[in-house]
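Forwarding these from the shared drive since the link keeps breaking.
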Amino acid sequence: MVVSAGQMNLVIKWGDVSSEKSVLSVVSALALSSLTLFMGTHAAAVTAVDGSGYLFDSRDVSCDGYPALKVQTMPGTCLGLVVSQNANLDRAGKPRLRMPRLIVKVPNRDDFLISDMGGWAPRIGKLFWLKKTTSGFELVELMDKLDLLHGLAFNEHDKFFYLGENNRVIRFRFDADLGKVFEVQTVIANLPDVARHMHPLTHFVFDPVTGDMYLNSGAPTDHCFQSDGQYKERCGEEFLQKMATIQKVSQVKLATVTEAQSLKQGDFEVVAQGLRNSMAMAIHPAGRFLIQGENSRDFPELEEPYDELNVVPLKNSKASSAVRHYGWPYCFNNHAVSPEWDKLVVGEPQTSAKLTTVSEIKKLHGENPYYCGRNPIQGLKDYQRPYSLLPPHAAPLAAGYYDGAMFAPELGGKLLMSFHGHRSTGQRFVAYPVNRDGLPRLAKPQNEKYKFSLPNGCSGEAPVNPRGGLRQHYARYDEVVCGWGPVRGVRPKGAPTGFAVASDGSIFIVEDKNKTILRLAKSESANYQPDCDSADQRNIDANIELLAWRNALTGEGSAEKEQRSQYFEIVKALRKPERCLKCHEGLINKDLRDTPDAFATLDFFVRSGWFKPGDAEKSLLYGALSANGIAPAMPPAGFDSLEASEDGRKVLKTVRTWIDNLPQDIATRFAQAKVGKNLNIRPAPTTASQPCGQLKNGDVIYVDPRPESRISAGGNLWTKVYLVPGHTRLVPGACEAPIDGVYYAAIP
């Protein structure tokens, strides 16, 4: 087999690999945007790896007329590729879709409109028409220079399409026969436009009964961040331009908009508050409740917090007069209090206790004014806990009810939701069974589990175990598209954002990061069900591996010191534009910290799979630098190879020695564990060291399980505990954060 990419060729004999997956891994390791595979001397493309990372057969029509992707879907269905990156390039050779977000069907046609954010730079968004042709679909640009475009919806009551930009909403009519938009108006002006706004995207839905608009106003920060660490009685951001809310704009108000007069904030009515970012919203045809998928705050740990499914009563529902508060930033999960407010002491509600030891953290359950499980938030009359929980970091981005024919038996009337999260619990498309009001059906929790993506691309299961416990009832969902984790050379990490039901009942799904449009359809022959090894289904935080590698290189033994010295020598040599810096974003990884530290390049090597410990010859890093044939040569053509200079040859020798002597047992140096009782977190294995925080009974943690790593001192047996930077069980400022994330706990 010959892998061809421009002027670079890599010949792979079938006998050199044991399986198709092995071949695909080699192909992916080249890190090229587009590869075509040829069998023998056959000139026509059989399979291709799209710029998005999907492997597909360009001639395949098995997924109801489209190439089938190797993504696991519910039985009897498939996921087809409608718009790929490589088939839709602009004149500059870049994908026309840059960051597509939402898709809406054009009434009475097989066409769609798509909002493309373009990226996070100002005024690069575009509106596209996905036009049905005799040979498939084509993209037609309708509008450009839109600012942080996201929201897109059609209002059945006034027959306008609505678009949401950073600080305004516009509307227009669309004539598909002419392929033009007209009657463009600014409907709402001067939406919150706060400096460094964390959630600036405008999203909205329309009540199918009344035509009223319900508009998200995201919180400006993650958790009402206070730079001085002084968290007061109430978060000031709640009162900043009505942010962290859902607001209603009546159809009556919308009808008054003219070309000269748009609506302002005084024309809105807040119907729900305490919602960090309402990106997934849906209203059932009955029009009694709004379903909201809450993108909860960003704890750095993998297992917390859980995202939320909230229910907002509309005017046709009982108790609709009360504006409920849904907890942000004070509460998370069902009963848990955010760390910043959990530290406030009763009797001093206007100040924040400056904590230096764990003993000063007062847990006054039932007395703390911000204890979300029993008493309402001080000053609020109606605190509302979540209707149900979603998996941690699921990041729901779109929701809607299925009303098509194709999947009527399986999905008819169900609430569909896309999980966009980049962590292992995201990359999914799910369906909730609902009652006649459109509310997800609740059941008493019985060993509930959620699914996540394993490193091999298969799905595992983890128990639903939120801090604060489960509520009395839980809404269960079915996975429509799962097994969407990344597999090199087969598929990228799924990134579903918006979706729409087509005329035939198939479901079109937009992916922003992958710049694709996919289609879920019926198919028995193309239904992809991977052969998975389910031996280990723990949901392991991938960042812990980075900490374990850091710990391996920060030891004080002679071998560790030598490896550390060689690592810094390699980093200094490679981080130059004429070598690696120009093509590989500085050779740094920011998964642990936004600000790179001394080991950010080590993180990059690990996360990219660039070395195989103990075997430099089979490592991509050494293979590329030495041009031994297992990867494209680095630096690329036009730059001097390392072999061309004495200094370069020295670097190459150091890389080889370093990789050959790296420890090969990192996978044994960390394991998941559950805390059985409250334990102080120490910076050193001694009770004389000041506590950095406290682990709680039931917490999921990561420890070094090797007997030789445990330390006996002061009558205690100390265990290494890996905690990612900013872990919520650490008291801010109590200890200096170790570069390898290693703390100690006296675990018997």
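-- next protein --
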Amino acid sequence: MHEPNSQAFLADLMDRLVQDWNQLQSLTALQSVAPRVESLLHDLESQRSRVGKAAVMTLVGSTGAGKSTLLNALVGRNVAISGEARPTTRQPVIYRPSDADVEEWIQDLPGPTPRIEDYDARGEGIWSGQILIDAPDTNSVEEQNRAVVQALAERSDVLVVVAHRQAVAENSTTTFLDAFKGMRGLLFVIGHGDTLSEQGRVELTSQFQSIAKERFGVEDPKVHVLSPLRVLQTGQDPGWNGFCADLQEATLAGQLTRVRRYNALGTTQRLSETLSPFGAGIEADLTEFEGLLNTVSDRYDSAVLAEVFQRLDLRSRDVEALLWEEVGRRWMGPGGMALRVGGLSSMGLGAGAWLARRNPLLAAGAAVGALATQKIQSHGRDRSMRNGEEWLPSKAELQRVYESAFAPVKLCQRQLGGDTIHFPDPVEIHGALQDAVEESMGQLLDRELMEQAELGASKPWRWLVDVPVYAFAIWIVIRAGIGFANGEYVGMDFLVNAALLAGAWLFLARYATRLLLRRRARALVAGIKTNMRSRMENSLDSTLGKSLRSVGQMRAGLARMIGVDRTWKDRILGVGSIADPDD
């Protein structure tokens, strides 16, 4: 019980209220009422902080009923002197932890000045650390005692009425307690329960419940038969846990009642009334601001995407070349070799060297050189396409787009106020766009291009190209074998002509393959445009999401502050035994 539930409960409400105001206080529309709102918040915090203090319990009862022993049991150690002499207590005794402030409870208290006793809050009792008041005896001959006890009870969170087992219906006690009829936070304890049989416990509980209901107006009286002495000595008693549970509930309700007594709900009502006239105007301004934020993506789409797509169209041949190379890597056969030996110019150089010089080595060297050149070009092409800077406009152009897109948004913010709204800077926007481009190109090069290369090098097409070459080669071998058997040589001219025929077939196959791959490359470019548009829009939306969330938080905070009165009433009045909001 060192940290009452009500403290965390109200701290949550107060923290949310302060957070909402911190978001809204810079709005231009609220500057005229900002001092008033801050004053009300300070007042409300002062009222709430009272509840953060220790719970206050006042124990009342007749002499010998066991108030002091119960107090000791609550704390877990002997801090109050118990006795049987009448009257045991002639002045209130307030037992408090050394850091607890009790000035508000003793101010203007009738009767003798209360005696204040500090105690070590590190006791073993679960209620150690709370403020406990041992009130004057209710059956004292001194009438002033009753006025003192009534004043203490009104200032306490919970009132614990301790009755002697032999005087449950003692006239002086019941007459005195008539003054507390209808009070909340009222618990009844019958002491010396260790001397009672089980039947005696039941009978006394029933008797006291009837008195509490009929005479004190308590609808559901909480009556507990206890032996505080046994709790103090052994830490156990059959009714102790039930008593502590009811005491905690009554304490929470009592502390929240204290909030109402200090007019916290009146403060929240004034706070709501102060802000309500500005609600519609601020909501309209926030809606306009949100709409302008949503146009930023459209402005970037029209300016940046158009530039990126134009560059992509210009480099569509690079996509085609990369696809061509990937198909060549996957094609193990004459057709794949024709794709890998280089471009048409390299093939023409090799063929010319073969025909003009009858030099196969020169032709092979030309092919190898073309292949090496192609590899270098391919590597550079891949790196260039993965670099987002290659696709985006220059930083100066992006800066102009940023200023154009955010100019109306910033103008609206200056009129609205709202310094807490986050704006992405040009570096954030540039980084988001570059990431979107690089992710899109990475998807193209690492996945989609590979998938299309697998389709381009499909088995049916490879067989269509390679089988005639293999058949032609077999025919040449057969002819050479027959000539060798007959002593006739096919000659170099025959081999050159055969190579030219095979080359012509591969040239046609290469050309047809390129046409097919060009169509696939165009489909890839169209797909990457769609993907890039989506990624850029999502990236911009994510970057602008902080600003949009700030607007949403301001809108929600404004609604909460305008409805703060209803919120506090609903939550405070719905906890514990607090009921009617109008009483």
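The radius of gyration is 46 Å. The chain has two domains: 53-260, 278-565.

- D.
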